[in-house]
Amino acid sequence: MISRRLIAAATAAVVLGLSGQALAQANYPAKTITVVVPFAAGGPTDALARILSAKMSEKLGQQIIVDNVGGAGGTIGVAKAARAAPDGYTLAFTHMGTLAVNIALYKSLPYDSVKDFEPIGLGGTNPMVLVAKKGLPVKDFKEFAAYVKANEAKVQYGMAGIGAASHLGGLMLNSMMKVNVLEIPYRGTAPALNDLVAGQFDYMVDQAVNVLAQIKGGNIMALGVSTKKRLDVLPDVPTIDEAGLPGYEVEIWNGFFAPKGTPKAIIDKLNAVLTETLADPAISKRLAELAVVVPGKAESTPEALAATLKASIDKWVPAVRAAGVKPE
Ligand code: ASP
Fold first, then answer.
1. Looking at residue 101, what is its pLDDT?
2. Which architecture does CATH list for 29-125+252-322?
3. Which of 6, 98, 124, 190 could crosslink 292 through cysteines, CB 3.0-4.6 Å?
């Protein structure tokens, strides 16, 4: 059925002499938008995508659905979004692991992080927490590091696939502790967390947003945070840097991206609603409770996200290579 809105837009287009493409842009969004999240539902990337998308959907007056396409450290979902039509109806919400770190970890990635996407805006930066299963016989980070070293052959850590944030957090930790332990890959850290709570593996470095509730519930142990400063939400948990690995620092930014060629007018519209969403007091309060660092207006422009991506590629590709990880 032709909506009144469409007829009005078409009439305006005739009056103004707009082309079909300009009409589509002026009328955007005219149907449901899909946001591909390249990890399992219920995990950190998914949680942030859903909080932001729900508010953006209200502001746009159109439904936004999240499509969880997990597997292969997020590369399957990101590749799906890269190949979608550049019309603003398929976007990706993903993080620096899939777009920057992965460059060092895969011999051939099914997308080019810079050439295949139009950045829309930064959605938030997440600190990480080193969490261990409850039964691990350690009280603090020092005991943990000694235990892992002494039990290298049997200890196992969980992560969401090669290039996931949890992989980066774990591999930098293990490389700085000089241990080589078996990694257990999952489609996201939501299912990994279930298994950690059940004691199926020993530890994981995951984004705070995903693990806070289980730490507070006493179901897993928090042994260190990945930032230079302690987190307000976990004031008693030391930084990994202060607890024994000086220089350890990993934070995960997340952002919205569109396939290359998506019209600038659409990118700008999405960026405007994202920026308004981040400035919404209820959203920023909710994100702060989850330890998400909310970007200011200047940090959430498309250009700032392009610069953030580039800076992460420059920082993490050599760092991961230096950690001695061989590309798959
Ligand atoms: N983004 C998380 C990671 O990279 C996984 C997830 O969102 O489930 O570890």
1. 96
2. 3-Layer(aba) Sandwich (3.40)
3. 124
Is residue 324 predicted with pLDDT exceeding 90? no
Strand partners of residue 182:
156
User: What is the CB-side half-sphere exposure of residue 239 using CA atoms within 13 A?
Assistant: 17
Q: Is the separation of the CB atoms in 97 and 48 below 8 Å?
A: no
| Cβ partners under 8 Å of residue 296, min gap 6 | none
- Contacts for 246 with CB less than 8 Å, ≥ 6 apart: none
Q: Where are the domains of the chain?
A: 29-125+252-322, 127-243
d(CA 160, CA 140) in angstroms, rounded, equals: 24
Would you state the structure tokens that stand for residue 193, as one six-digit string? 């967390």
CA-nearest residue, atom 1 of ligand 1:
45
User: Would you state the pLDDT for residue 326?
Assistant: 81
Helix (H) or strand (E) holding 98: none
For 194-245, the pLDDT digits (tens) are: 999 999 999 999 999 999 999 999 999 999 999 999 999 999 999 999 999 9
Confidence of residue 23 (pLDDT cuts 50, 70, 90): confident
Q: Compute the radius of gyration of the chain from its Cα atoms.
A: 21
Ligand 1 centroid from CA 95, angstroms = 9
Among protein residues, the one with the nearest Cα to ligand 1's atom 7 is 45
Ligand 1 pocket, Cβ-based, cut-off 6 angstroms? 39-40, 43-46, 95, 97, 160, 164-166, 188-190
State the Cα–Cα distance between residues 31 and 265, nearest whole angstrom: 16
pLDDT computed for residue 211 by the predictor: 97
User: Which residue from 37, 45, 159 has its CB within 8 A of the most atoms of ligand 1, so it is best to mutate?
Assistant: 45
CA distance 233 to 216: 10
**Which tokens is 45 given?**
């990337």
Instruction: Note the pLDDT tens digit of each residue in 130-173.
Output: 999 999 999 999 999 999 999 999 999 999 999 999 999 999 99
β-pair partners for 157: 183, 203
Cβ(97)–Cβ(73) below 8 Å: yes
**CATH superfamily of domain region 127-243:** Periplasmic binding protein-like II (3.40.190.10)
